[in-house]
Amino acid sequence: MPWLFQLVLAAHVGAGLVALITFWGSVATRKGGPAHRRWGRVFAAAIYVASAQALIMGTLSVIWPLAMHPQLTDEPLYRGLFGWMMIYLAVLAVSMTRYGLAMIANKTAHARNRHWSMVALQLAVFATGANCLVHGIILGQPLMIGISLLGFGTSTTYLHYMLKPQVGRTDHIPEHLKAMVACGIAAYTAFLSVGLVDLFPAHAFNPAIWAVPTILGLWIIFHHLRIWAPKKPAPLPAE
């Protein structure tokens, strides 16, 4: 059975590498321009493919954790880390990508953001995040606990925006930006975890290392939000 996991993992890494590269294409190109849209479409497609494969790997790791990872010995730990947490991260990545794309697609039709599938996806993040949190507490894994809180935060803010009866004409822009950059953060975080399992097993789940993409991603978000922030009107001249 490990061959099945390795086969899916190889395809997952391939899709992940495409996402890691195209993420920077989206960041570096003019927002809203043709190049930005092309990079963004490829990035989103790669995230969807990688997430689907992560769901498969997570499910296999929940059912047969030691069969999928014969080099490991702690069955409950790796069922939690490679199983439940991977399933949760896959759902979270799909949620971020779907939300980010919807912000642009529905920029003139906010009511479509309240489609049942959009709401259901956020509820799925809550459910899988809660499951990850419980297993993290049981296993004493601060990484699982901390990363589950990220999903609670994103879904709460997404639902808050989606359920607003009315939004401003340009409110969709920061929502799109935050969701897609957050998805890039998740992609790089997952990349570091997989790479470190093979290169530095002792540090594979070190929260300090996983924090690097988050810090960089937050800087990108704040930088672009400052650029896109509505300009305050100039004060009237004193009489």
UniProtKB/TrEMBL annotation:
UniProt lineage: Bacteria, Pseudomonadati, Pseudomonadota, Alphaproteobacteria, Sphingomonadales
Domain of life per record: Bacteria
Protein name: DUF2306 domain-containing protein
This protein's UniProt keywords: Membrane, Transmembrane, Transmembrane helix
Entry's transmembrane regions: 6-27, 39-64, 84-104, 116-138, 203-222
